[in-house]
Each structure stands twice: as C-alpha cells, then as structure tokens.
Amino acid sequence: MTNGRPEERQFVRFTRLNRTLHACMIVSFMSLALTGLTLKFSYTAWAATLSRLLGGYETAGYIHRAAAVMMFATFLAHLKDLFRLKKEYGSWRGLIFGPNTMLPTRKDVTEFAATMKWFVGLGPRPHYGRWTYWEKFDYFAVFWGIAIIGSTGLTLWFPVFFTRFLPGWAINVATIIHSDEALLATGFIFTVHFFNTHLRPEKFPMDTSIFTGRMPLAELKRDKPLEYETLVHSGKLEASMAEAHPPIVLRTIRTFAWTALALGFCIVIWIIYAMLFAYQ
Ligand code: HEM
User: What CATH number was assigned to the domain covering residues 10-103+147-277?
Assistant: First the structure.
C-alpha cells in the first residue's frame, strides 16, 4: 500500500454499470424495507420513531412508492444490459449456455456437494469459476423477488385498476403475499447474502469488489482459481486489469458499504424483536 492506495493493478470483476445498479438496488431496497416495515410493525416503538423521522406514515408511503420506481428502473436497466452482453458473447446461446452462464449447471451441483465436504474437512476447496452456485442463487432470488413483491406491490398501489379483472379478495391476498415476501427478502438478504458475501472467513469483514469493481489478483487466484486459469490461458487477463481507485474513493465506498451493512443488521434485529416480543 502507498498512501493507503494498493500499489498493484487489480482485476476488474464488475463493470461500472454493474456497480451503479447494485448501489441503486441497495438504496431502493433499504428504503423499501425501512418504509414497508414501519407500516408492517407500526405497533412497535421503533417503527413509530422511524416513521416520525421519515415524516409520518403518509410520507413513508410516498418514499416506498418512489423507491419501488427506482427498483423497477434498476431491474429494467439490467435487462437492457443483457442485450449488450449478448453481443459480447456473440449470441444468446453463448450468454445463456456458455462457461460463464448465470444459469445453474451440473458443475454447480458438483461444487455444492464438494463445498459441503470441504466445510467438514472431507475434501479440498472447490476450484470455483466466474460464478459460484450461491452467487447464481442470489442473482435469481432478485428475479423471483421482484416478480412476486413487485406484482403484489403494484396491485396494492393501483387496486382500482387491478380489481377490473381480479376479484376484490385478491387485494387481501396481495397484501399477505407482499408483506410475507418482504420478511423473506429482508431476512434472506441481511443474513444469508451478507454472510456469504462479507462474513465468510475469506472475505471478513467486507468484500468491497461489488462497489470498487476490482479485486487484487492474489484474491482472484485464491477465490476463483478456475476463472484465473481460464483468463491466463485465453490471454485475456491483462485486458481485465486496471489501476486501483484513489484512497478518497475507497473511503467513500467503505462508508457507504458499512452504512448499508449496519442498517441491514439493525433491520434484522428490529424484525426479530417485533416478531418475538410485540407481534400482533
Ligand atoms: C418493488 C416494488 C414494490 C412496490 C410497487 C410496493 C408497493 C407497496 C404498496 C403500494 C404498499 C402499501 C403501502 C401503503 O398503503 O402506503 C406496500 C406495503 C408494504 N411493502 Fe411494498 N412495494 C414494493 C417493494 C417492497 C419491498 C422490496 C419491500 C421489503 C423488502 C416491501 C415491503 C412492504 C411492506 C412490509 C409493506 C406493508 C405491508 C403490510 O401492511 O403488512 N415492499 N408496498
């Protein structure tokens, strides 16, 4: 390190758009979770305090809707980016069935079994490639989550329109699904996703690569050995390297990331408290 800046050039894992969209996802998801949960647990003291800070329950409702628009826009921008990726990979077939696919493959099943063995000391750490099975799972959890929570959210937002072709009781069902899926999504992201990404021993206390886009080459070799070897053999490694960010950028990124992590943990604790001691 020189003046807090890593000396070596680093491997670029995420594009600028990937990083921007992930940051937008964090901002929109945190805003939706905070405002939604203050409604759901409105009978608890923390929800009342939070709602007052946000300007009251009505304002929280407006923030919720604005954040929902941001989340939909983020999702659409990602779908549009898939068309760019298709060109990069030559065809949809190359993107969807190539070695860097996000779809689950037989290799993921083998790696899952090998990882379980590694956990209990019965085998070596698997030779992970570009995407591990848990990263693919997290990726598709967003597709599933947006489909369920987004469609029920829109039903709650525009009940008059939706009851033109749905029975009235569908609004009650949409509220239950939306509310319970919100718990599932926040519970999953702020525990399993946080643990897999930041709290596992190799990454603890935080993996900043989704924010910086970069990781040291030594980390790539250790974490994703198969990806490293593929890049070396194809001669593409040098083209995937870039200078590290200046310290001020790294400090800003860490502040943002630590705030998001801390907020996520607080939300989990608030949910557990509300469910155990105040559930109505
Ligand atoms: C992405 C699209 C989404 C849309 C369009 C949407 C829309 C809505 C609407 C219109 C309401 C009723 C609020 C009111 O009456 O003022 C609501 C409630 C709620 N939303 Fe969302 N929402 C979305 C995503 C989320 C997410 C991601 C979460 C949490 C992670 C969430 C959590 C909640 C909760 C907990 C409630 C209260 C439900 C209850 O009363 O039990 N929403 N949402």
Answer: 1.20.950
